[in-house]
Design goal:
Strand content: 5-15%
Order of helices and strands: HHHHHHHHEEEEEEEEHHEEHHHH
Structural class: alpha+beta
Largest sheet: 4 strands, mixed
Helix content: 40-55%
Shape: globular
Number of helices: 14
Bound molecules: flavin-adenine dinucleotide
Distance between the termini: 49 Å
Radius of gyration: 21 Å
Number of strands: 10
Oligomer: single chain
């Protein structure tokens, strides 16, 4: 069984977005261009790529050509310099229609790898790395998480010691998206003492001696390239230091907020996909002499899903407006991420329940999204860490 997205709008009035002044003609033109690209170059192959555990490498170049990789990046590096989180929301809504978050995560992995370089890197590194990455010629991953933990970033252990004109790196990184394919790895290392103030960023390049990687198998995100990275006396030229020594944590932190808008918009968009597929099913399926959608218990499931999706979308858009106005609403962005992933968790569960056995079969978007719930709730700041951060920001 294969549930394919019709390409139409939701039958439920989630499409207030299309009438909202927040979504301008420019946003909708981008939505239309991206949808056309996805429908031609990605949607027909999603099941195949997921089963194969990878997507073709040339997809990066194709995505660059349509403007997907460069959206929001400076023109001088080949990007489209829109400083507007509404584009992120539109982009993630369109990508979510494939129901395969791992493809999005790997294809757009530079969205966490490149910003720290652009935020604090030297002009030499920026000019060397950014154009190739935004053109889809090179892949740029971000490696922070280690086998000993990912939440406690300030406590990371991979070490880089200065020796002459090089840094010598030893340690390992875990669960790194784009890890196998990466030509460039933005690597968080300890160069100083304990805590956040002892962390630097180094640019690791494919082929450096002592840098090895192994693939990891996962519950979901099958087409995503996830790897463990190992550094055994890797010599990295001092010119590959990104920003100042021991200032790397700032480079990492600067991208947290836009990453959270991205993760939240993606989670709520996947929740909407679950709603839509379950609704199409429930309108068609008959049980006990009437449409599944006519049973009150099922109708209430839809009402609850719609309620949570609409509330999350409103919170998302409110945060986006504040970010665009120059605010940094850390507490709300953290809680938004929690809200979005809980909404996704609820909708994936209810959609599977409504669709019954069919939702358990491969090739069904809801089946795949269900397997991706936890990575959304854990990655990029887990629910517990997000709540804790919000509570601290709120002075609780
Ligand atoms: C598919 C996938 C792709 C990923 N891609 C990347 C990537 O590209 N780059 C990268 O650097 N990382 C990546 N990660 C790692 C991800 O960011 C981490 O998994 C995440 O930060 C959590 O770290 P951890 O798994 O080590 O869990 P831990 O930090 O060990 O935490 C385990 C659990 O304990 C909870 N916990 C921890 N501390 C506290 C506390 N103080 N109070 C209450 N609860 C707490 C956490 O919320 C979590 O539920 C990826 C992970 C996955 C699964």
């Amino acid at each position: 069984m294969s549930m394919k997205y019709s390409g139409g709008e939701s039958p439920v009035d989630f499409d207030h977005r299309y009438r909202s002044p927040l979504y301008t003609e420019d946003h909708q033109a981008w939505r239309a261009a991206l949808r056309k690209f996805i429908d031609k170059h990605m949607m027909p192959f999603v099941d195949e790529w997921e089963e194969a555990g990878e997507f073709p490498r040339d997809l990066y170049k194709k995505a660059a050509e349509v403007g997907l990789l460069g959206m929001g990046y400076p023109e001088e590096y080949g990007g489209t310099p829109v400083d507007d989180p509404m584009y992120t929301i539109v982009t993630n809504e369109e990508l979510a229609r494939m129901g395969a978050g791992g493809i999005n995560a790997s294809l757009l992995i530079h969205s966490i790898g490149l910003p720290p370089i652009l935020a604090i890197g030297s002009d030499e590194i920026k000019n060397r790395v950014a154009p190739e990455v935004l053109a889809g010629e090179k892949v740029n991953a971000l490696a922070i998480t280690e086998p000993s933990g990912g939440s406690d970033v300030a406590n990371l252990k991979t070490r880089a010691v200065r020796d002459g004109d090089d840094y010598v790196v030893n340690g390992s990184k875990m669960f790194i998206t784009g890890g196998l394919r990466a030509d460039y790895v933005t690597l968080a290392v300890r160069t100083g003492g304990e805590g956040a103030k002892g962390i630097s960023l180094l640019l690791i390049e494919r082929g450096m001696d002592g840098f090895t990687r192994t693939p990891l198998k996962k519950q979901g995100w099958w087409a995503s390239d996830t790897a463990a990275l190992y550094f055994d006396d890797v010599r990295v030229p001092k010119e590959n230091l990104i920003g100042e020594e021991n200032q790397g944590f700032i480079g990492i932190m600067k991208n947290f907020n836009s990453e959270r808008i991205g993760l939240a918009s993606s989670a709520v968009a996947f929740a909407r996909v679950c709603f839509e597929d379950a609704l199409a099913w429930a309108r068609d399926r008959e049980t006990f002499g009437k449409r599944l959608a006519d049973h009150q218990v099922i109708r209430h499931k839809f009402a609850e899903m719609a309620r949570k999706i609409a509330a999350t979308q409103a919170y998302l858009e409110q945060c986006a407006v504040r970010v665009q106005a120059g605010e940094t609403p850390v507490a709300d962005l953290s809680l938004l991420k929690v809200q979005a992933t809980l909404t996704l968790e609820f909708c994936a569960r209810e959609a599977m329940q409504i669709m019954g056995g069919a939702s358990y079969m491969r090739g069904c978007r809801v089946e795949r999204i269900y397997r991706e719930v936890r990575v959304n709730a854990i990655g990029g700041g887990s629910e517990e860490i997000m709540r804790d951060l919000a509570a601290r920001q709120l002075g609780i």
